[in-house]
Each structure stands twice: as structure tokens, then as C-alpha cells.
Design a protein that fits this description.
Chain A: InterPro entries: MED8_plant (IPR038795). The complex is a heterodimer of chains A (556) and B (217). Chain A is mainly alpha-helical. Chain A contains 24 helices and no strands. Chain A starts with 31 loop residues before the first helix and ends in a 6-residue tail after the last helix. Classes of the chains: A mainly alpha (556), B alpha+beta (217).
Chain lengths: 556, 217
């Protein structure tokens, strides 16, 4: 309850009884009768005593809070009730006489508690007053000079205008709603209907579309029409290989066959076949895991892989395949081949182009003899079959390009050969990269050795063949990855050849002078081999003599 | 699991639908260009033949690959009452040799299609995705650049939301309420159930495309 006790300055109803001096502030006193009845002094005393009682209680509470003790609720409640009673009595007494001068709100609740002070006050709060004034000014701009009636008129017209605008807006909205049938409340008033033919057409289209999306109908291309587009879109180009040999990658609906006939002068064909056979070879070699693993115990040759961090070469040295690619304009990315070969050892053989004389580091005695027979024999047969058909004249021309390349000769190819000896298909490539008669010699030696080894039968390939397609995958298992040095690798091969079948060398001799020299070179040392190679290169005619000297040296 | 409804809309109204969706979803529309390859297993690979979809998203500079397997849908009386199809679905991103991998497993390409359109992904009770796309077929194998629409005058609208077996009812409810907002333009239904076009589609599209036509006050 709000106490509206004012301290004696309310408006007295009987104003005329007191003098009102104009200069002095009006002193208004209560009606004497009211005054007596009210007995202000008395009320004041009671109010102060009540105030003291309440403050005492509050102090007690404070003490309780500070000392953290629980108050004795009985006492406090008793005190509170006394205070309450006293207050009630005071208010009652005042209310009897307060009608004259007190406004006492009866019903204060949450709604009007904030506005009551404003209503009761005779003057607005300062800020509210300024607010009010500014709004009034805004409204009555230009009108304040006029008399009030005119001001009222003008304000009225303004209101009317605004109302009219709102009405027209409402009308337009409802009209457009009707026209478009979009109104939520009323629903579409215009429903255009489709004629039967149109509806049928639409239905048919819809069925087509749904069937296509959900079941794939209408999208299937029959087998004979499944010609792959010549240019695969970007996202598929590096995922799928384009090429006749890639039967595993493409839907084998019969379009792609294994071992499709080689297209002459297409590296891809060779590639494909090589890879295919390589895959087969790999599969075979995988069959004898124990043998395969023995290939791996190689010393750490830094030049094992062309671009691996372990290689001593620059990281970005293109592998032999890439370099030959530049010559051959091979388009297939290298990764394709790498991806093809399931075995992990499928890695590009390193270019020892920058390290032509790695021989010293990398020469190793072959560990292959133990390996060779069982594994290689199996593979050889297959290789022979495959490659004989493969290697035609086309390879000859290709290999001839490498003849003049001394570097290549020294650099990699023997390394590759040795590494890949287990894989017949690679031999041709490696050997092919050798230049000169030595090329021939090595090549043919490798070829003839395939009778017992995995070396492909290169007899069909002429010695002057240029580089194999650069994409040939070397990573077939069974190769000794350390055999990077040409002579070393070839030595391995020759070791194998010597170890397994001496007779295999014989055919070599029949193929030509240089070849025969090679054939004699059965188990040379690495260093000696290299010397031989150099000798081969420089003086093809002297092969025979040079090699023949070597023969007794490295019987193993 | 996913909840899915499909609908069709005439190509002429696709732009209007885009505007409506833009307003409803509050997110930017994203371009959609997906090459879908549907692979089927050969009969001797498993006890039943299975189907796997490889999706290649061609939009971002780096193509991303996704593997998707769609399983059977919920059946039963409860399922019939739901207006949305709830089915098992497993999806995963994959590296770019996923196609090669599946071919190596023995899957064969059954059919392929190219979806071109736009999509909205937003959250409204559930993570909802709306795609509006034209389904194109390729005349030559993998020739995505020469794809022609299967139905030139009609495009497919799909509303999907992932769900689990625990919360699928809420997801279904969220999707249904969202689909009601599209009622003026198209009807959505379970895949396989045809709906026809909505008669108010033309009017609704016109109103969405126009600039209101109201007079200025």
C-alpha cells in the first residue's frame, strides 16, 4: 500500500478562508477541523517510532547475516507483526481524514506501478518533458502560429490523408492476391486446368525422368555402343587409362580385349602389352614369394628410384620413361603404369644418367642365381610368347634413336635391365636405350638369355632399336632394385644366364659379330663389364676379343 | 539412413523455384554438377547383386569423389503412413581411384548420368538438402561434355535429409513441413510414385518472378 502522507502542503478545499498574499508563496494549511482530527504531530511521532522499530529489525537481520547464525524466527515474526499492526493503525487513522488531501491509489499492481508516479506527479520528469516538447514541435511545425482551432483542423486533415493511403494499400494487396490466387486465407480462386493431351505428355515425361534417376532406365548403353569417348573428361582422364591393354580398368563388356594386336609405332601398344605381360609376370612371380623376397636384400643404393629422396640424383630428374617420352611424345602419364602394377616394387627405374659411373658403388654380386631358375623359367615362357609377337620392326626404329646417346648408354639402361631382368618385357626397353653396337650386344644377350631367364626374346628386336615407350613399368617383383649399374645389372643377368644355361648364350653368337662378343661375356665383373661396355661402344669390332678375355675371370 | 522425396517441375518454372527456395532456406544456392556412375556387381561376386554409385562432383576446382550405397527402404504400415521415403544409405568420400578400385573388385558400369543444377543445404529441424537438377545422359561412354537431358522440359527436385533410426520421425516431420511450403509450385512424393504437375505452378511461378505489380503509394 502506498502511503500518500504528505507533510502538509496539499490543496485545501476551503481556500477562501486563508489570506493569499500575492508576493509570498501560498501557505496552505489544513482545515483546522481536519487538522485536529488528523493530529499531525501525533502521526509524526508514531511514524518515527515505527520507523525505528523497522530499522531495529533490519539491524538484527544484518547481525544475523554477518555472524552467519540462524535467526530466531519466532521473535522476528513477533516483531514483524507488531510493526505491521502499528502501521496499519497509523494508516487507518490517516485514511479517515485523508480524503481531503491525499490521493491514495488503491490498486497497485505490476501494470501500473511504473506509471503511477508519473500520473500522480503534477509535473513531468525533465527528460520526459523535453521529449514531449520535441514531439509536439515536430507535429505542429508551422502550425503553432495559427490559432488552436486551425491547428486542430490541419491535424485532422493529416490524419485523414494517412488513413486514405492505408486503405488504398490494403485494396491493392487484396486485389493482387485474388488475381494470383496466392492468398493463404482464401485459397486459389483460379485453377488452370491442363487438357488431357498435355497432361498425358507430362505424365510420360515424368515417368521417364523418374525411371532414369531411380532405376537407370534409358541410360544404359548396349555393349557394342560402348565406345569410350576419345577424350575423357578431366576427372576421368587420370583415373581411367585409355589404351587397348587396359582391360582391367574399363568395363569389360567385350570391347577391350587382352593382347590386342600391336599397332605399329604406337608406344601405347607396346606399353600396354608390356604392362599386361608384366602384370602376368608379376602374378607369376608373386606365386613364389620366398623367391621374390630374396630380391630385396640389396644394399642401399641411393639411385634406386629416379625421383625418390634417397636417390642421389635431383628429385626432379625425369625417369628414363619420361625422357624417352620426350623423344617419343608419349602421352600416358607415368602413374598409370605404376598404378597398374600391383606389386609395390613397381617403381620407375632410376636414371643413372647423372651418375654414369655408379658402378663402383652399386656393383654387387648377384644374388639372383639362387632366385632365378624357378621363378624366371616360368616367366620366360610367357614372356617369350608375348614378346615375340610384340616386337616388330617398330621397335627397331624406336631403338635406333637411342644409338647416339652415350649418356644413356652409360647411365641407366643396364641398371634397368639388371633390375628388371626378372621381367622380360622390360629388357627390351632397357636394352633399347643403349646406343651403338653395345646396345645391340646387350640387347641380344638379354634376349637370348630369355630361354632360361625371364629376359624376353629380343631376337626379334633389332639391336638398333630406340627407346622403349617410356611408360614401361619396371616395378615387377623379383628384381633386385640395387642393380642400377648397367654392368652390374647385366652381370646379374649374365650370371643367371651363366649359372643356369650356358647354352642360352650360344645363339647370340650367331646373330652377329657384336652379339657374339656379348655372348662370350658370360660372367664378367662389373668393372670389367663396364670396361667391356666401353669397349663395346667404342669399338664394336673388338667385342669378341675383349670379351673372350673376360670369360675366365668371373665364373660363378 | 536418409529421408528422401522427389518431385518434378517444368523447366520453365525452375527459376521461380530457385527464388522461392532462396527465400525459404536463407542460404545461397550452390551449383551442382555431379557425374554419377552406377556400378553393379557381377553375379558371382556375392550372394546377391549389389549396386554402388560413384559420384564425382565436378564443380569445385578439385573433383571430389563419393561412394554411395542405397539400401532398402522402410516397409510396413508405419512406412505407408509417412509421406517421405526412409531408406538406408551409406555414403563416404573417396579418393580419386575409387572407380578403378571398384572395377578391380569386379563391378561393372551399369549406367551413368550427369546432374546439372543447383542445391540448397540448410538446417530447419533437420539438415535438409534440396537439389533441383536436370538429369542428363551421355551418348558416349563418359562423355560428360556432350550430355543431353533425358527430359528437356522437366527437371527433378529432390529433398533429402540424413537420419538415424532413432530420430527419423523428427526428420520426417521437418521435411514434410518444409515440403508444404513448396506446395504452390510442385508436389513431392516418394521416389517411384508419380505426382504430375501442380495446377497452380504457372501462377505461382509468375508471381514469384514478377516484381509485384503493385502501384506506388
Amino acid at each position: 500500500m502506498m502511503e500518500g502522507v504528505t507533510q502538509g502542503q496539499p490543496q485545501p478545499p476551503q481556500l477562501q478562508q486563508q489570506p493569499v498574499p500575492p508576493q509570498q508563496p501560498v501557505v496552505e494549511a489544513l482545515n483546522p477541523a481536519v487538522q485536529q482530527q488528523l493530529n499531525l504531530e501525533h502521526v509524526k511521532i508514531r511514524a518515527t517510532s515505527l520507523f525505528k522499530a523497522i530499522s531495529r529489525i533490519l539491524e538484527d537481520f544484518d547481525a544475523y547475516a554477518r555472524t552467519n547464525t540462524t535467526p530466531k524466527w519466532q521473535d522476528i515474526l513477533g516483531q514483524y507483526s507488531m510493526v505491521n499492526l502499528e502501521l496499519f493503525n497509523i494508516v487507518e487513522e490517516i485514511t479517515k481524514v485523508s480524503k481531503a488531501f491525499i490521493v491514495h491509489p488503491k490498486n497497485v499492481n505490476a501494470e501500473n506501478s511504473t506509471i503511477l508516479p508519473v500520473m500522480l506527479s503534477s509535473k513531468l520528469l525533465p527528460e520526459m518533458e523535453t521529449d514531449d516538447n520535441s514531439k509536439k514541435d515536430q507535429l505542429l511545425q508551422g502550425l503553432q502560429s495559427l490559432p488552436v482551432a486551425l491547428q486542430i483542423e490541419k491535424l485532422k486533415t493529416r490524419i485523414n490523408m494517412v488513413a486514405a493511403a492505408c486503405e488504398s494499400a490494403e485494396k491493392v494487396l487484396s486485389e493482387t492476391r485474388k488475381a494470383y490466387g496466392f492468398g493463404a486465407r482464401q485459397g486459389p480462386t483460379i485453377t488452370p486446368t491442363l487438357d488431357k493431351a498435355q497432361a498425358a505428355k507430362i505424365q510420360e515425361q515424368e515417368n521417364l525422368l523418374r525411371a532414369a534417376v531411380n532405376y537407370g532406365e534409358g541410360l544404359r548403353i548396349s555393349g557394342d555402343q560402348r565406345q569410350m569417348a576419345l577424350a575423357l573428361p578431366m576427372h576421368l582422364a587420370d583415373v581411367l587409362n585409355v589404351g587397348p591393354g587396359m582391360q582391367n580398368l574399363v568395363d569389360t563388356s567385350g570391347v577391350y580385349q587382352k593382347n590386342t594386336p600391336i599397332q605399329t609405332n604406337t608406344i601405347s601398344a607396346q606399353n600396354a602389352l608390356l604392362q599386361a605381360t608384366g602384370a602376368q609376370l608379376l602374378a607369376r612371380s608373386a606365386a613364389s614369394p620366398s623367391a621374390a623376397t630374396s630380391f630385396d636384400n640389396t644394399t642401399a643404393s641411393p639411385l634406386q628410384y629416379a625421383n625418390s629422396p634417397r636417390s642421389g640424383t635431383n628429385m626432379n630428374t625425369p625417369s628414363p620413361q619420361q625422357q624417352s617420352q620426350q623423344q617419343q611424345q608419349q602421352q600416358q602419364p607415368q602413374q598409370q603404369q605404376q598404378l597398374l602394377q600391383p606389386q609395390q616394387r613397381a617403381k620407375m627405374m632410376p636414371l643413372s644418367q647423372h651418375h654414369p659411373l655408379l658402378t663402383q658403388q652399386q656393383f654387387r654380386q648377384s644374388s639372383m642365381p639362387g632366385l632365378g631358375q624357378t621363378q624366371l623359367d616360368d616367366l620366360t615362357g610367357q614372356a617369350q610368347q608375348k614378346f615375340q609377337s610384340l616386337h616388330g620392326q617398330s621397335q627397331l626404329q624406336q631403338f635406333s634413336q637411342a644409338l647416339g646417346n652415350h649418356q644413356q648408354f652409360q647411365g641407366r639402361q643396364l641398371a634397368s635391365i639388371g633390375g628388371q631382368l626378372g621381367q622380360g618385357n622390360l629388357m627390351s626397353r632397357h636394352l633399347g636405350q643403349f646406343s651403338g653396337a653395345a646396345n645391340t650386344a646387350l640387347f641380344n644377350a638379354a634376349q637370348t638369355a630369355q630361354n632360361t631367364q625371364m629376359i624376353p626374346n629380343m631376337s626379334a628386336t633389332m639391336p638398333s632399336q630406340s627407346l622403349l615407350p617410356p611408360r614401361v613399368q619396371f616395378g615387377l617383383s623379383g628384381t633386385n632394385p640395387q642393380r642400377t649399374h648397367p654392368s652390374q645389372l647385366l652381370n646379374d643377368q649374365i650370371f643367371n644366364m651363366g649359372g643356369t644355361n650356358q647354352t642360352g648364350m650360344l645363339p647370340l653368337q650367331q646373330q652377329g659379330g657384336s652379339q657374339s662378343a656379348f655372348g662370350n661375356m658370360q660372367q664378367p665383373n662389373a668393372q670389367t663389364f663396364q670396361a667391356n661396355m666401353v669397349a663395346l661402344q667404342n669399338n664394336p669390332q673388338n667385342h669378341q676379343t675383349a670379351f673372350s678375355q673376360q670369360r675366365p675371370q668371373n665364373q660363378q | 539412413m536418409e529421408c528422401i522425396v522427389q518431385g518434378i517441375i517444368e523447366t520453365q518454372h525452375v527459376e521461380a523455384l530457385g527464388i522461392l527456395l532462396q527465400g525459404l532456406c536463407g542460404v545461397q544456392k550452390e551449383q551442382l554438377r555431379i557425374h554419377e556412375l552406377c556400378l553393379k556387381s557381377v553375379p558371382n561376386l556375392g550372394s546377391v547383386s549389389s549396386e554402388v554409385k560413384i559420384l564425382c562432383d565436378l564443380v569445385p576446382p578439385e573433383t571430389t569423389w563419393t561412394v554411395r550405397h542405397v539400401g532398402g527402404s522402410m516397409r510396413g504400415a508405419g512406412a505407408d503412413q509417412i509421406s517421405v521415403l526412409v531408406r538406408t544409405m551409406v555414403e563416404s568420400k573417396a579418393s580419386k581411384n575409387v572407380l578403378r578400385f571398384f572395377y578391380a573388385l569386379g563391378y561393372k558400369l551399369d549406367h551413368e548420368l550427369l546432374r546439372v543444377g543447383f542445391a540448397f543445404h540448410f538446417h530447419r529441424g533437420a539438415q535438409i538438402s534440396v537439389t533441383v537438377s536436370s538429369i542428363n545422359k551421355m551418348l558416349k561412354l563418359h562423355a560428360t561434355d556432350d550430355a543431353v537431358p533425358v527430359t528437356p522440359g522437366m527437371q527433378l527436385v529432390e529433398v533429402t535429409a540424413p537420419a538415424t533410426s532413432e530420430n527419423y520421425t523428427e526428420v520426417v516431420a521437418a521435411m514434410s513441413s518444409f515440403c508444404e511450403h513448396l506446395a504452390p509450385l510442385l508436389h513431392l512424393s516418394k521416389p517411384g510414385i508419380s505426382t504430375g504437375v501442380v495446377p497452380t505452378a504457372a501462377a505461382a511461378a509468375a508471381s514469384l518472378m514478377s516484381d509485384g505489380g503493385g502501384t506506388t503509394l
